[in-house]
Amino acid sequence: MTIKEIFDSMAYGPAPESATEALGWIARHNGTFGHWIDGAFTKPGDTFTTANPATGEPLARITQGTAGDVAAAVKAARRAQPGWAKLPAHQRAKHLYALARLTQKHARLLAVLETLDNGKPIRESRDIDIPLVARHFSYHAGLAQLLPSEHPDLTPLGVCGAIIPWNFPLLMLAWKLAPALAAGNTIVLKPAEYTPLTALLFAEISREAGLPKGVLNIVTGDGTTGAALVEAEVDKIAFTGSTSVGKRIRAATAGRAMALTLELGGKSPYIVFDDADLDSAVEGLVDSIWFNQGQVCCAGSRLLVQEGIADRFHAKLKRRMDGLRIGDPLDKAIDIGAIVDPIQLRTITRLIGENPEGDHYQAACPLPAQGCFYPPTLITGLSAASTLMQEEIFGPVLVSMTFRTPEEAVALANNTRYGLAATVWSENINLALDVAPKLKAGVVWVNATNLFDAAAGFGGVRESGFGREGGWEGLMAYLKPAAKPVALKPVAPTPEPANPEAPALDRTAKLYIGGKQARPDGGYSQPVYSPRGKLLGHAGIGNRKDIRNAVEAAHAAKGWGKATGHNRAQILYYIAENLSARAEEFSQRLKDLTGYNGTAEVEASIQRLFTYAAWSDKFDGAAKSVPIRGLALAMNEPVGVIGALCPDEAPLLGLISVMAPAIAMGNTCVLVPSAAYPLAATDFYQVLDTSDLPAGVVNIVTGPPADLAKSLAGHMDVDAVWSFSSQNLATLIEREAALNVKRTWVNNGQARTWIGPTGEGREFLRHATEVKTIWVPYGE
User: Fold this and answer.
1) CB of 286 within 8 A of CB of 386?
2) What's the CA gap between 99 and 95, in Å, rounded?
3) Contact assessment for residue 40 and residue 198, using Cβ atoms and an 8 Å cutoff
4) One of 124, 263, 473, 763 is an active-site residue; which one?
5) Which residue of the set 297, 298, 372, 669 is catalytic?
6) Residue 467: helix, strand or coil by DSSP?
7) 47-51, strands of its sheet edge to edge
8) How is 427-463 classified by DSSP, letter by letter?
9) Which of 86, 124, 224, 252 is the most exposed place for a label (fewest CB within 10 A)?
């Protein structure tokens, strides 16, 4: 083609990136890799082949990890962890900084190998992924440096297991590895079976950084290897992948006292209002859903466009789709690369073929003759209940429907079981910032999409998982209190005397649901006796239906979360004031129930209410310092409905210590009070009645903790379950919570001192909030 013809057509010529260096690195290892354990490659075992998805040509032979391989890696990590944790923070920071600098040094090799292995365009690997990897290690070097002064009361978890997917192989490694190492943990990481090569190259680079042996271990293999890592003796699992696998991991780790973070699937809404810059919104969609083949869990794959501009917007979108270039991912002039593997390509094809609903439009751009490619696809005319609107496709497929009002846009956007990310396009900043907080998502981008940074937390809500990666909030997931836990000594209810003063069961005692006393569904209650056998009263025996009613009442009080922090504080102060007026009465009640003087516990309860009243308008979010012209706002939002099982050790103080942070942060709650001393709670709801607390914000259901815990943890409309019960209910709660991946906070049979600093503070506030990151670029 002549120069004149090029200028006439403005056609792109090929601009291939050489793969020579990357293929040479593979060849130096004879094309076959073992695991990386204790600072060196192991001898290869049984292997499987990874292939270049753009050509189908084999790249390398990778060892299939066994349970024995995982055990060896965990053993090496366990052996190295004490020494790594004892290193001065500055020394750990230097290692992390070295990893950042070496990532920059080897950027071209890493980017090319990532593209060969994954199929994404070299522009994505080179310009986005690798710089972000370096940024994560550099940022976490700073966190490591500051950790002792900022959080001297925290200590590393120990050995962390990490399982990462194939869509961002090296970036996901950085998301897991950087905070784990910064906190003083060691790690065993399993990369996706399709894309292990950059993880293995990075392990080799870590030796150049002087990382001690055993601090980083990598075991390759398929899902069975990941399952072996979940079953191994590690202290935390950090998983990024599908929701279905995340649920299985939650169930498999139930009751094992392991920390867990899950970053799962998404069906992210992409909302375009009629005043948006439509051309920019189109480009955002191209970047979000097509430049990366739609293989991003947070991709805006669910387009919601305002009705008045829908036809014009779809027309613009189709024209842009037709101009996209599909081909060799190593070609710098290519827009769309390859699907990672034939299996994933078949999954996309099957899902679209089995759901012919709506109007399908596929871009008029030719596909390569070989390799795993799928054309950019737009499906319009769908309803909210359509399978394609609800199910994650994980391919270059965009589904669309229209809305009329902002309220309808929010309702449609939230009509999903997921909650990973969302995008809002509007030139009216008031409208955008009104809609963003209403969206059920961990991340919201305003007039932008797919912005990431190490300083800004990323993660989901609902069935998109829990936990954040990035920022201080991400680092907290790799730390624990330094104080050694004390084994819990269960408190049994006082036994019934030989000659009781009342029948064993009666129908008089009530529960507290929706701001009213309510008869237990079964109608029964049980007597409560003093240590000397005196009948003190009766406590209702709640059941599954009572929990259902309490959860409904809690949802009906959702306006509490919209109240200002100042207003919530005033209510908490008022509760404290009314409790103070009855302090002598409650002290005597505690003495009757437990036999000890209750004065100190009542005074501590009043102080604790004051503490969380003070925190109500002071647990601030943050404006994150991210490298864009704009802001990333980390907003602390209420979790929603929290079910909490209260401790026996301090029947009044324990209940207030659980209730107060929850409602201070705008949550509503269903409380299961002490099974041994329930009357402290049934007396306390009289205080709530006289303190202007809106009905349904606090609900109290007395009864058997194990039965009620099962109902709470299995309830699909409960957002989190806390357990400080003297019964170790961790296994039951975490297994039931897997149904909808709800957050849990359980004591695992460990005691907490409720009078004193361990009974209050930021730990409780963090569990009572979700961090939503709202990205707001500004200027031209």
Assistant:
1) no
2) 6
3) no
4) 263
5) 297
6) coil
7) 32-33, 58-63, 47-51
8) S-HHHHHHHGGGS--SEEEES--S---TTS-B--SGG
9) 86
Q: What percent of the chain has pLDDT over 70?
A: 95
Higher pLDDT, 484 or 42: 42
**Averaged pLDDT of the chain:** 92
Distances (CA, A) of 670 to 514, 677, 679: 10, 17, 16
Residue 701 CA to residue 543 CA, distance in Å, equals 8
Structural domains in the chain, sorted by start: 20-263+473-481 (3.40.605.10), 269-453 (3.40.309.10), 487-772 (3.40.605.10)
Q: What angle do CA 475, 479, 484 make, to 5 degrees?
A: 165
Q: Is residue 649 helix, strand or coil?
A: coil
In eight-state DSSP terms, residue 127 is I
Burial of 407 (0-12, 13-18, 19+ CB in 10 A): exposed
Please indicate whether residue 263 is annotated as part of the active site.
yes
Kindly indicate the confidence band of residue 780, based on its pLDDT and cuts at 50, 70 and 90: low
Q: What is the per-residue pLDDT across 200-240, written as a single tens digit (0 to 9) for each?
A: 999 999 999 999 999 999 999 999 999 999 999 999 999 99
User: With contact defined as beta carbons under 8 Å apart, do 442 and 461 qualify?
Assistant: yes
Q: Confidence band (pLDDT; 50, 70, 90) for 495?
A: low
What tens digit of pLDDT does each residue of 518-567 get? 989 888 888 888 888 888 888 989 999 999 999 999 999 999 999 999 99
Do the Cβ atoms of 339 and 347 come closer than 8 Å?
Answer: no
Q: Where are the alpha helices (DSSP H) in 616-704?
A: 651-664, 679-689
